Amino acid sequence: MRVRDLGFVRARRGGNREDRVRGWILLALALVSGCSAAEPVVAPSSSASRPSAPAVPKVNEHERLAATMLTDSEGTALGFTYQSEPTPFIESQNQKFALVAACPGRLPSDSRIVRAEQATWRNDDYNLEELTAQYSGIPAADAVGEVARTKGCRANVGSGGRIDEISLPSVPGADAAKAFCTISEYGTDRCVVVVARGEFAAAGELRYYGIDGPANREATTALLRRVAIALGQGLGHVA
């Protein structure tokens, strides 16, 4: 090959290198322009991806109190055949909250009752007035203590009558529990049992309509003890 041909080869090789350099430059420019034209990446919003919390249902306080009352099966087990549906006790000018209706005057703790639910049970021999009360600012056990100091408000005993405190078995979960019966000259007249747990107290006022006698008195106190256990179990549903 002649020297002149070698020069042509060098020139051609040099031109290929320049073309390659130019190509790399064009490719780099294209990549840069492509990146600048891409959509910006936006971080997902944490609030948009977070699932909403389920709504918390409002608690109806009177429904909570109604849940403490004796159920149909519990009333039947105690021997009662009739029940009025639990209803809210509505205060009025002439009718105020009272844990024990038989009290001639309101107990100091009665003014701390914020709501109450009531029901009535009956059979041929007995009438039971049931009430659950919710207190504010004091433990319900304080109200039971006041009832105890008045001997259950069993005041009208008549000639030769007396008030007996009825011993109760241990009431599971109860902070306090007391029971009293009026034994008048005509026999067992009225009994009351009160049970407290937390801010709630339950009262059962039991009246006997049957023929008086030692056996019936014993049956009445036995029933009162069973009512105390049932009321305490009911308070466990909310307290």
Automatic annotation (TrEMBL):
Source domain of life is Bacteria
Q: Indicate what this protein is called per its UniProt record.
A: Sensor domain-containing protein
Organism of origin? Amycolatopsis deserti
